[in-house]
Amino acid sequence: xxxxxxxxxxxxxxxxxxxxxxxxxxxxxxxxxxxxxxxxxxxxxxxxxxxxxxxxxxxxxxxxxxxxxxxxxxxxxxxxxxxxxxxxxxxxxxxxxxxxxxxxxxxxxxxxxxxxxxxxxxxxxxxxxxxxxxxxxxxxxxxxxxxxxxxxxxxxxxxxxxxxxxxxxxxxxxxxxxxxxxxxxxxxxxxxxxxxxxxxxxxxxxxxxxxxxxxxxxxxxxxxxxxxxxxxxxxxxxxxxxxxxxxxxxxxxxxxxxxxxxxxxxxxxxxxxxxxxxxxxxxxxxxxxxxxxxxxxxxxxxxxxxxxxxxxxxxxxxxxxxxxxxxxxxxxxxxxxxxxxxxxxxxxxxxxxxxxxxxxxxxxxxxxxxxxxxxxxxxxxxxxxxxxxxxxxxxxxxxxxxxxxxxxxxxxxxxxxxxxxxxxxxxxxxxxxxxxxxxxxxxxxxxxxxxxxxxxxxxxxxxxxxxxxxxxxxxxxxxxxxxxxxxxxxxxxxxxxxxx
Amino acid sequence: xxxxxxxxxxxxxxxxxxxxxxxxxxxxxxxxxxxxxxxxxxxxxxxxxxxxxxxxxxxxxxxxxxxxxxxxxxxxxxxxxxxxxxxxxxxxxxxxxxxxxxxxxxxxxxxxxxxxxxxxxxxxxxxxxxxxxxxxxxxxxxxxxxxxxxxxxxxxxxxxxxxxxxxxxxxxxxxxxxxxxxxxxxxxxxxxxxxxxxxxxxxxxxxxxxxxxxxxxxxxxxxxxxxxxxxxxxxxxxxxxxxxxxxxxxxxxxxxxxxxxxxxxxxxxxxxxxxxxxxxxxxxxxxxxxxxxxxxxxxxxxxxxxxxxxxxxx
Amino acid sequence: xxxxxxxxxxxxxxxxxxxxxxxxxxxxxxxxxxxxxxxxxxxxxxxxxxxxxxxxxxxxxxxxxxxxxxxxxxxxxxxxxxxxxxxxxxxxxxxxxxxxxxxxxxxxxxxxxxxxxxxxxxxxxxxxxxxxxxxxxxxxxxxxxxxxxxxxxxxxxxxxxxxxxxxxxxxxxxxxxxxxxxxxxxxxxxxxxxxxxxxxxxxxxxxxxxxxxxxxxxxxxxxxxxxxxxxxxxxxxxxxxxxxxxxxxxxxxxxxxxxxxxxxxxxxxxxxxxxxxxxxxxxxxxxxxxxxxxxxxxxxxxxxxxxxxxxxxxx
Lengths: 500, 314, 315
Fold this sequence. Notes:
A: alpha/beta; 24% strand; B: mainly alpha; 4 strands
């Protein structure tokens, strides 16, 4: 490996009331992919924001190319060729690809005006280097997630990034897209770009990384060579205990009756979908991003309209399905993005847990706060939420705990049919396990469950049956046991068709 | 044929609205009253005040904000110019001072909004109150008439057949076209409207851009106010009232989304023309004032309705 | 114990009101009289009605600029009912006014929720339309000489010397506070305001909630119109032009967030009282009325900035 380019020494960072970083040390060599691994709230993102100039450390030193540096804003870090790609993209949807790539650094002509020709030519160069076919004049809002990410990479390249930080880059990508990303990373490495790679997905770390540093509770635990450590070792470092990666669902508890039947459902994003879920059964829905999985869930739940076909919930066909009506018929939906769709962040845990079941809890139409507090405390305790203060605002909770509040909210509705859309995305290993066992318990008690997930081991470990979706259609139904990841990917990516 | 259809598709939708409204009035009004050269120039002159003022409204809307102080600033700067001119100050001094006074209000808006990240709606609403009150104080609560040739020149003078205020509006529009489309600041204004948090993380000085937006808005409002006072030969503390709404309406009728991120300067000009032609045409058609209010309200809501619906289709 | 109602924000506003009142009672001898205090509350009561309605729309992240015109149209249309000294007629009139107010509010709410038009423009359009029709209907006339029993609403005094409008606004205040805090609908308004998408996924019918809020706004505007007409014994098309401004000011001073989902009735009422208090104080001190809006504007800015600061500290 190349020489050392960056060293973070004993970085500490305090927010009012919280010590987010407590003496983290981290090194990065030239042309290296160094993975930063840790549970949610371990301080990975904070550390990277310190490096990118978004936050300023309270203690410790950043040594970059042998010199101590201090960034008081993101621009200064950029000027030193440190680029960061956040989990939530930072592109302007209303601007073009080219404008986004050179945002803040537009080439100007001698009158001080933006030289559009040069801007687009240079942007095109960046995209050409990445070997991607994106129109530089296209508005970003018209690109899919994967292409937007490539625009982000191009943007990083355009500042001649020497250090590129990628925060959970694969979180919303499908497998072929991930492969393309890895190829891009390899190309960047060849150009001597050093990459800090943050991820939860243990499988991919050893594929992409050279070294792996684990941090926990704001402290650095240790650094390992990627090819000389085992997965179990990393997990132990992350959580301080061993976790087996075996099939969670030992027994298929599916009953004969259907909880939900979807027949020939078609709308803008879906084509002739027919699936069914039995009571007590966990059905996994796999597919690439954009294959219509969330859209299917939205159609069943009544968020999106159905053009033709019908949905039967517990033998009742709802004429005009809406979330409210579905909830009254004992259906629940844990949406993909908890911050946008799952929670009212500025409200308390109490108000969040009860907000989908107010009518059932208080049929008179008037809220009894004492009863409400007791109810929400009860469900939050079941979810092993680590606070007993139901008046705490949800925005002050960590990601995993927020997801537990979302789950508590849906347990509170006493649903017999639930859709979990990416239930464990961005959640640490411990909380993930708890959510899995919760889903299993629900199924054992007789609830029908649809689980949408991009995490294939999760699908395989938990589902009784698996539907694979591609381009708005169900392409294959597979049994939960005995199926391999390769099979699923094969159907999801349409490998068979291409070969034929 | 294909080229023509492409070119037609490029024409902003509200041009058609403009043409349709013009056509309606041409049919409805007595022959030789509406679609005459002198009336068109008259409309252009009337439009220039609203057109200039609505640039400020547009800029604020692009960033996802709003500027309700436009009308108040117009009153204030108009009154300042009139009082100074009445006191015998030459226009070369009176106008810049009036412009400065109005711009100062914009600067205060900008400083508060940029530094504190508070809702522009309420701050500019407060500034509307403040400037209107200041206008009352400066004018001592009455109309200030200045009937000198010099004072009336910018608003009612003509170069050939073109009123000065139309020329000034054209210059202002060209300048702001360049600012929004060709400068970094312009790109940043759109970027902030698109995704403010991301713009900040990209290293864009969001506070500076917002500050500039409200300062520009103060400046254009002040200019519109001075021109209006000059045109009327008098200023009273109420004469800018309503312009904040019509300015916003011009921008939105022209396709700018209140959520921010889009809208162009030239489209806004069309929007301002639509509103002016509507008012002028209804006048010529002899519609009573109260019906005019109803029609204007319906048209504004209607055009926005069509715009929102057609966008959702896509 | 009561900290759930009197959240610090509301408390600090109350302290500000008390502080100003104390200062005024020291500086002007006529300030601290029962009559003057009751007068202040009586004057504030109109704004209280409208501001509570305005707050409802702001809680779901909207705004209602049409309140002044809705007040005008509903009061001029219902005015005919109020000439006869007959309780049934008066009650019918009030119901009629409220129905018009609610109808206008529902149109606003439908445009904003079902058709997703910007609230600002919809309600501005509505204000133009209502005002235009009010002018058309009145054609420059002024109705006055209403029956004595009707005038009780605006001028009557109960429990000693307390004016009716104060009592009516007090009742509204208590009812709305209860509604927002204790009812399912009230809770759903807050959830919809702080995160509409979450509300939708939670089965809350946001369109219904939005319409409800705008209907409340229209209703309170109409109610204010009835009280206003009764108090002045005059109904005309020009009334209420500045009311939207005052109501928004009261709500903003009262800590209602423009992003939606934050604020309560108490804050709004304190905001309305504070505004009236300042106007009254300026009159007492002999400050020209021209300066009133200047001070109003400054108070708004100060209140919003203090809110901002305290929110930052809380985080």
